[in-house]
Amino acid sequence: MTTETMRIFLDTADVPTIQKAFSTGLLDGITTNPTLIMKSGRQPTSVYDELADMGIRDISMEVVEATAVGMVREANKLIEQFGDVATIKVPCTKEGLLACRELANNNVRVNVTLIFSPSQAILAAKAGATYVSPFVGRVDDNSFGGLCLIKDIVNIYQQQSWFQTEVLAASIRNVRDVGRAFEYGANICTIPPNVFEGMYKHILTDKGLELFDEAWASVQQVHAPTNI
């Protein structure tokens, strides 16, 4: 288990976008969706290959089988091909947690997704999940507090001295929620590219840069060499 905190994953499978973000040195991993990859006309394994070649060492690869046996079989193929780059993403269902348990027992990283309650996060932790992914935005859509869910899960793990499972805040839709999720104890936020780009920006930074540029231009004008 890594001891790094405040990690940022990008939630996309668009390779050029990932390459641009990864080149900043600020990105720690990727969460992907094989359905969206295939809708874009590509095969998931081809995309995973490109991401691994980029140097990304933590790629959540979602399995799509419905049964635990099928999920494990699919996961083993991914592990065989991608090794420790692969984090296997399973849903928080009975079958998904059965698969999680078997994979975790074989030292495979597992990301249990579609977490909407503390009780689900408890079961996922007991099943050996490396990460649990509470869906902040989707919880908000249903009139519950998505960020409060992050806080509740983190508090439970801390109260129980449970450090084997990390909280990966997912379905993050704005820059403010990134900061709040980390404030409430999330270890990782996985965010769409527009939110990642938005983290750089603030109106006061833009104004400050404008003033710096004006001041620098005025200094250059005053001290510019004169031709005699």
Short précis:
The protein is an alpha/beta fold and 228 residues long.
Explain what this protein looks like in three dimensions.
The protein has 228 residues and is of the alpha/beta class. It has a single domain, classed as Aldolase class I (TIM Barrel). The chain is 51% helix and 16% strand. The chain is built from 11 helices and 8 strands. It has helices spanning 15-22, 34-39, 44-54, 68-82, 94-105, 118-126, 136-141, 146-159, 175-183, 193-198, 203-222; strands at 7-11, 29-31, 59-62, 86-91, 110-115, 131-134, 166-169, 188-191. An 8-stranded parallel barrel has the order 1-2-3-4-5-6-7-8, surrounded by 6 helices. Helix 1 (15-22) links the parallel strand 1 and strand 2 (29-31). Helix 1 runs parallel beside helix 3. The longest helix is centred in the last third of the chain and has 20 residues, at 203-222. The chain is globular, with a radius of gyration of 21 Å.
How would the blueprint of this fold be written?
Blueprint: E1 7-11, H1 15-22, E2 29-31, H2 34-39, H3 44-54, E3 59-62, H4 68-82, E4 86-91, H5 94-105, E5 110-115, H6 118-126, E6 131-134, H7 136-141, H8 146-159, E7 166-169, H9 175-183, E8 188-191, H10 193-198, H11 203-222
Parallel strand pairs: 1-2, 1-8, 2-3, 3-4, 4-5, 5-6, 6-7, 7-8
Helix pairs in contact: 1-3, 4-5
Note poorly predicted spans.
none
Mean pLDDT reading: 91
**CATH homology-level superfamily:** Aldolase class I
Count of individual domains: 1
CATH topology, by name, is TIM Barrel
The side-by-side strand order for the widest beta sheet comes to 1-2-3-4-5-6-7-8
Number of helices: 11
Query: Helix fraction?
Result: 40-55%
Largest sheet: 8 strands, parallel, barrel
Q: Work out the oligomeric state of the chains in this entry.
A: single chain
- Total strands: 8
Order of helices and strands: EHEHHEHEHEHEHHEHEHH
Radius of gyration: 21 Å
